[in-house]
Design a protein that fits this description.
Mean pLDDT: 92
Oligomer: single chain
Structural class: alpha/beta
Radius of gyration: 23 Å
Largest sheet: 7 strands, mixed
Helix content: 25-40%
Number of helices: 13
Number of strands: 9
Strand order of the largest sheet: 5-4-3-6-7-9-8
Strand content: 15-25%
Order of helices and strands: HHHHEEHEHEHHEHEHEHHHEE
Shape: globular
Distance between the termini: 83 Å
CATH class of the domain at 109-299: Alpha Beta
């Protein structure tokens, strides 16, 4: 009878290597090391994709019909082999899930049909892809660094049809003065890149927005963090130093403390206001990140420039 209740070979190995006889001698740190990772949690250092999929799946269960409708209109989302989940027959990755939520937030304050869009720092182009797939955008201009611009151009050429792609304009940062000419825009978009620019560069872009745009959507962190436990500073201390020096908001805070984040929001809203003639029309947390905030600013008493 006793043999029916013996440990499996899997657990014999766990008991030999991690949950040892000595494991209970010192409880210091046990919930964040291999002892608990073999009892109750998956080790985040080796199970990052598992946790990413768990996050995306949980977020997918909270999407409304309008969110899914936006995602469904975005074709060719599988280009580049994203990490996806499937919920009730519908596939989604974190990038386009965020894009759907961002569009829902923006469209409550800004009419996007027929709009002229300027995006500063587009990454590989997921926001542009989502907007052109959901609205009758008149034109879409992307300002970015040379290498990133090459990536977004290649990606958007792969996912958009000819008519959509013809509405795009790609501008290198060195050519802003001449390439934009007298262009005016109904909306400027910046998602998670102002925080990686020098403070002077952000100020220059905000001046550009003030001069040329009718509305501004921004989604960026409310501050910085210096918690080595989160990523082990795998890119090196120099990368950490550079990150802490950039952006208009450089105070270090506990990004997983809701009260600390809330206390930093007023500074965020003031830092990203393009000028005195602008009003914050709406703001809220930038899901799913604990320390990201998003806001839409509009010109006081004016719809479009």
């Amino acid at each position: 009878m006793a043999k029916s209740f013996q440990a499996s070979r899997q657990w014999e190995r766990i008991s030999e290597l991690w949950v040892t006889e000595e494991a209970a001698a010192d409880l210091t740190g046990f919930k964040s090391d291999r002892r608990n990772f073999n009892l109750a949690l998956w080790d985040p250092t080796t199970n990052g994709v598992r946790y990413l999929r768990a996050l995306v799946y949980e977020l997918a269960t909270r999407l409304g019909d309008e969110d899914w409708a936006r995602i469904g209109k975005i074709h060719n989302r599988d280009v580049g082999d994203p990490v996806t989940v499937r919920h009730e027959g519908r596939t989604v990755c974190l990038d386009y899930l965020q894009a759907a939520l961002e569009l829902g937030f923006i469209e409550r304050e800004v009419n996007l049909d027929g709009a002229r869009i300027l995006e500063i720092g587009a990454g590989y182009g997921r926001t542009c892809h989502a907007m052109l797939s959901n609205y009758d955008i008149a034109s879409y201009c992307i300002i970015d660094l040379k290498n990133t611009l090459s990536l977004s151009r290649a990606y958007l050429r792969a996912v958009l049809d000819d008519k959509q792609f013809a509405r795009l304009k790609f501008v290198q940062v060195d050519d802003i003065g001449t390439a934009l000419g007298q262009d005016r825009f109904d909306l400027c978009v910046n998602v998670h890149s102002f925080t990686e620019m020098t403070p002077d560069t952000v100020t220059a872009y905000l001046r550009l927005i003030d001069e040329r745009c009718g509305a501004f959507f921004v989604k960026n962190p409310v501050g910085k963090y210096r918690d080595k436990a989160m990523d082990g500073h795998t890119k090196g201390e120099e990368a950490v130093r550079l990150a802490l020096a950039n952006g208009p908001l450089r105070q270090v805070l506990d990004i997983h403390d809701s009260q600390a984040v809330a206390a930093a929001v007023p500074a965020f809203l003031e830092a990203y206001r393009p000028g005195a003639g602008w009003t914050c029309a709406a703001d809220t947390r930038g899901v799913p990140w604990s320390y990201f905030w998003q806001a839409v600013y509009t010109r006081t008493g004016a719809d479009r420039p």
